[in-house]
Specification:
alpha/beta, six-stranded parallel β-sheet, 17 helices, elongated, binds uridine-5'-diphosphate-xylopyranose
């Protein structure tokens, strides 16, 4: 199949490279000339494990190419995926669909034969209808079908998620459109990934409902963690105790500093906007958003408490800044609020992150960025682990102890057993334990 990806950001690039790896012919389009020039030279603008190798091997055999010429790329395609950004609109939290609609206008002008337009961007219910209306209006003779195909990729594990998905969701009712989609995803059938077809609106809502549910699960265990601290229970034991119930499942029950990233914060807000528009309140999701927002600064205060309630003129070593490991993404990372809370209270922050420093520098000023975890700890009064990068899981504890002025060890991701840290002579603070 000939596939065109409009938008060579995170989703477009990962999806495009994986489709090419399945043997499809893929062209990735972007308006950003410098990004396309870089991609042509094999330079990848984002950090995602395995992506550079996948892009270069498929580009080398000619199955993956990059262009700024949308019209040419669309004219040849069997399917055109819209994978442009849908950021939260400033002010009201609605998903900003201007890039999606602009892409639809441009695609409409370039259609030459029956083409499936696939919405991969995360878009509110009804966007597919609007895309169809735009294309019909701009090019009344065009032959096309609009299909929704939400992505469920996790940053840091995106290639594996794409190639071995729990499911693929395809929304639409045009038989020709569905036929093309089945062909595109046929390589996954061997791996027995379920490919489920449903209405277009159903597919659009599935994406938001899925992310809102996962955000709810995390927030639920985070509140249980708070209760554990009060009643003297261990949230990891409770999470295991409930997670082994198949109806609940053990994933996404890790208590921590709150969820962040490019999806959960944005998609939960957009779902609330849709719920208001359709007068179907989503009170659980409303609570999740509010609880998670409060939690991030509360985690900063937790570090302050661990330091005896006052961090004025103290130095805190922060390990991990990105919203989760294996990404350089700082969007809505809990580390932002945590570092700012510490700074507001008068602390100096020395920080280390394996990949996130470049992005962090754009949002967090006055931080001393260090080249490795131990340099960050030099002369610090306390250590706080904020993101659970593998590199922090086996720190040399005696070295840590000799570098810190006070043996204060705050583990906001619960990666260490309490007894080991306490035996090494630290005061250990974790989440919900
Ligand atoms: C998420 C969804 O998982 C993915 O399906 C969707 O396509 C995009 O949004 P992503 O944002 O990459 O993916 O990260 P994810 O691994 O889901 O983690 C999101 C946030 O939740 C992170 O801040 C993470 O630290 C936090 N989290 C996750 C927890 O605090 N506890 C958990 O148990 C799981």
């Amino acid at each position: 199949m000939k596939i065109t990806m409009i938008g060579s950001g995170y989703v477009g690039l990962v999806s495009g490279a994986c489709f090419a790896d399945f043997g499809h012919d893929v062209v990735c389009v972007d308006k950003d000339e410098s990004k396309i020039a870089a991609l042509k030279e094999g330079r990848i603008p984002i950090f995602e494990p395995g992506l550079d190798a996948l892009v270069s091997s498929n580009a080398a055999v000619g199955r993956l190419s990059f262009t700024t010429d949308l019209a040419q790329a669309v004219a040849d395609a069997d399917a055109v995926f819209i994978a442009v950004g849908t950021p939260s609109r400033r002010g009201d939290g609605h998903a900003d669909l201007s890039y999606v609609y602009a892409a639809a206008e441009e695609i409409a002008q370039a259609l030459t034969k029956f083409t499936v337009i696939v919405d991969k961007s995360t878009v509110p219910v009804g966007t597919g209808d609007e895309v169809e209306r735009i294309i019909r209006g701009a090019n009344p003779d065009a032959e096309f079908a609009v299909v929704s195909n939400p992505e469920f990729l996790r940053e840091g594990a995106a290639i594996d998620d794409f190639k071995r998905p729990d499911r693929v969701v395809i929304g639409g009712d045009d038989p020709r459109g569905l036929e093309v989609m089945r062909e595109i995803y046929r390589p996954l059938v061997l791996g027995r990934s379920p490919i489920i077809e449903m209405s277009r609106r159903g597919a659009e809502l599935t994406k938001y409902a899925g992310n809102a549910f996962l955000a709810t699960k995390i927030t639920f265990i985070n509140e249980i963690a708070d209760l554990c601290e009060k009643v003297g229970a261990d949230v990891q034991e409770v999470a295991r105790g409930i997670g082994l119930d198949n109806r609940i499942g053990s994933k996404f029950l890790h208590a921590g500093p709150g969820y962040g990233g490019s999806c959960f914060p944005k998609d939960t807000l957009a779902l609330l906007k849709t719920s208001q528009d359709y007068e179907a309140p989503q009170r659980i999701v409303e609570a999740v958003v509010a609880v998670n927002d409060n939690r991030k600064r509360a985690m900063g205060r937790k570090v302050i408490q661990a330091c005896g309630g006052d961090v004025r003129d103290k130095t805190i070593a922060v390990l991990g800044l990105t919203f989760k490991p294996n990404t350089d993404d700082m969007r809505d990372s809990p580390a932002i609020a945590i570092v700012q809370t510490l700074q507001d209270a008068g602390a100096t922050v020395r920080a280390y992150d394996p990949e996130g420093v470049e992005q962090a520098q754009k949002v967090l000023t006055d931080v001393v960025y260090c080249d490795n975890p131990y340099i960050a700890m030099e002369g610090a009064d306390a250590l706080a682990i904020v993101t659970e990068w593998d590199a922090f899981r086996a720190l040399d504890l005696s070295r840590v102890k000799s570098l810190l002025k006070e043996p204060i060890f705050v583990d906001l991701r619960n990666i260490y057993p309490r007894d080991i840290i306490e035996k090494a002579g630290f005061h250990y603070t974790a989440v919900g334990r």
